[in-house]
Automatic annotation (TrEMBL):
Gene3D superfamilies xref list: 3.30.1120.10, Alkaline Phosphatase, subunit A (3.40.720.10)
Lineage, highest ranks first: Bacteria, Pseudomonadati, Bacteroidota, Flavobacteriia, Flavobacteriales
Keyword check for Cell membrane: no
Family note: Belongs to the sulfatase family.
GO molecular function, one term: hydrolase activity
Protein name: Arylsulfatase A
Length: 520
């Protein structure tokens, strides 16, 4: 008995002595293994394609500042948005849930109600529970209010009700009304004597539109975009009043940058999460005069150069505040590229040899890979060793991965913890992924992509993009055929069956939405 007691006692003493003997270095290593609370920044582009950065192969555009993140961090070659348009991808990146589970997660008008439930888990909510300050600067496009918004009062619920302590946003898109900034729910700079009214149904009496008064426009509409005119640009939707609050399109990049820098500076004692959602290169492309003409590729190229400069300035701010070693940056885009998305802005004429989608097929709105495969970079100075990763990663995984980073047990319904892949510790990403374009979905598993047969046009002629619709099943091996040129469905029926089964297991055997779109 005594000897047993002595044995335990000695053991305990030995343990104490051992831990007391640990060198300083060992201690810091041990500490390093626990949950970390670095600052986290998502830099999210709007419609930037897989081939739009020099670090992703562009030869006609030079993007040194974003390239510096790609070269100093992990450049993912299989990084995906969930969807080929904005609203659903933005829903997924914040909630960790596939957007096709929510029927309202489709391109929203500026008057749409909020589509994230205020009781839903989100990246900022999860981080807030861990003591983070949480902010959004830039494009929102996830709806505001609960229907019939009065823009002259506090507009809610919105970002502040789903996890952000601070929000400075544009409500929908740069081409949609209301063309004003909203800070914590209030229209910035609104003159109460000049109230704002917004409608997507009918014009307000006496207000000129792009359709009726093309002579008042300085940017011409190609398709859609012929309602209210703001700063010479005809938009989607009608708006009246709010003159003093209207944004200046050419100053938007500088304006958001100033807000993002101020957020970092004010929260430098951290930890903070900043979701910085840039508006470029979505239409209307309105480079600041400093960048106009700089790319030789028209405004689309110019705003990509502008965005690259913005990213450089933002990173400099982190550096100046001494935060670069303590900040994880995730850079990506909400969907693939489109050249002509509704305005005559010379994007097509001046494109030259540039290929916004790189080697991929399709573009924005497409089920082919260019719709959803986008630049995807993680950067953390001193913590992430530079490299390229082929791991399959998706923005929907950021919730679970950031939760793992900060030691939270919160998860999104479809979010996988890919922290090791994002940190460059493994090349193992997720095994499979459902991809979405409009109301249609496709399936990626390993190196394979399967697109079910869908009704509808093969090409959207307005934007000149192949949508992925075909009367037959399509099966591609992306490793051997990145450009999806060779349909292997007939040649490889076993693989096709495996893909269909895998797809149905996630998407649901009897999904009525798919059934309506499917050919059989
Ligand atoms: C489309 C617009 C397009 C763009 C898109 C949303 C027309 C004809 N086209 O409906 O210009 O605004 O919506 O883009 O109106 S997204 O990147 O926000 O999803
Ligand atoms: Ca977009």
């Amino acid at each position: 008995m005594t000897s047993l007691r002595n044995y335990f006692l000695n053991g305990a003493i030995l343990l104490l002595v051992l831990s007391g003997c640990k060198s300083k270095e060992e201690k810091s290593l041990v500490k390093d293994e626990g949950p970390k609370h670095p600052n986290i920044v998502f830099i999210y582009m709007d419609d930037l394609g897989y081939g739009d950065l020099s670090s992703y192969g562009a030869t006609e555009l030079n993007t040194p500042n974003i390239d510096a993140l790609a070269e100093g961090g992990i450049r993912f070659t299989n990084g995906y948005a969930t969807s080929a348009t904005c609203t659903p991808s933005r829903y997924a990146i914040l909630t960790g849930r596939y957007p096709w589970r929510n029927k309202d997660a489709k391109i929203l008008p500026g008057t749409a109600p909020l589509i994230i439930g205020t009781d839903q888990m989100t990246v900022p909510k999860m981080l807030k529970e861990k003591g983070y300050a949480t902010g959004i600067v830039g494009k929102w496009h996830l709806g505001l209010g609960s229907g019939n918004v009065n823009w002259n009062e506090r507009v809610a619920p919105g970002p502040n009700e789903v996890g952000f302590d601070y929000s400075y946003i544009l409500a929908a898109t740069q081409d949609r009304v209301p063309t004003v900034y909203i800070e914590d729910g209030f229209v910035d700079g609104l003159d109460p004597n000049d109230p704002i009214e917004v409608s997507y149904k009918e014009n307000f009496e006496g207000e000129p539109t792009g359709l009726d008064h093309p002579e008042l426009t300085t940017m011409k509409w190609h398709h859609g975009h012929n309602n209210s005119i703001v700063n010479g640009i005809p938009r989607i939707g009608y708006m009246k009043g709010g003159e003093a609050a209207k944004w200046s399109d050419v100053d938007m990049a500088d304006h958001f940058l100033a807000k993002a820098k101020a957020y970092v500076t004010e929260h430098k004692d951290g930890p903070f999460f900043l979701y910085y959602a840039l508006q470029q290169p979505h239409v209307p492309r309105t480079p600041h005069p400093r960048f106009a003409g700089k790319s030789g590729m028209g405004p689309r190229g110019d705003v990509i150069l502008e965005a690259d400069w913005v990213v450089g300035e933002f990173v400099k701010t982190l550096e100046k505040q001494g935060l670069l070693e303590n900040t994880l940056i995730v850079f990506s885009s909400d969907n693939g590229p489109v050249v002509n998305d509704g305005y005559y802005d010379e994007a097509e004429e001046k494109l030259g040899k540039h290929t916004p989608a790189g080697p991929l097929r399709g573009g924005k709105y497409s089920l082919f890979d260019a719709g959803t495969r986008v630049p995807f970079i993680t950067y953390w100075k001193g913590k992430i060793a530079p490299g390229t990763s082929d791991a399959l990663v998706c923005q929907v995984d950021l919730l679970a991965s950031m939760a793992a980073l900060v030691g939270s047990d919160k998860k999104g319904e479809d979010s996988e913890n890919l922290l090791d892949a994002l940190m460059g510790k493994t090349d193992q990403g997720r095994k499979e992924l459902v991809l979405e374009a409009g109301s249609r979905t496709a399936f990626r598993k390993g190196d394979w992509a399967m697109i079910p047969p869908y009704k509808g046009a093969a090409v959207n002629k307005q934007v000149n993009i192949e949508l992925g619709n075909d009367s037959e099943y399509q099966l591609y091996n992306l490793k051997e055929d990145m450009g999806q040129t060779k349909n292997l469905a007939k040649e490889n029926p076993e693989k096709l069956q495996e893909m269909i089964q895998g797809f149905k297991a996630i998407r649901g055997e009897n999904n009525t939405e798919i059934k309506e779109l499917e050919l059989k």
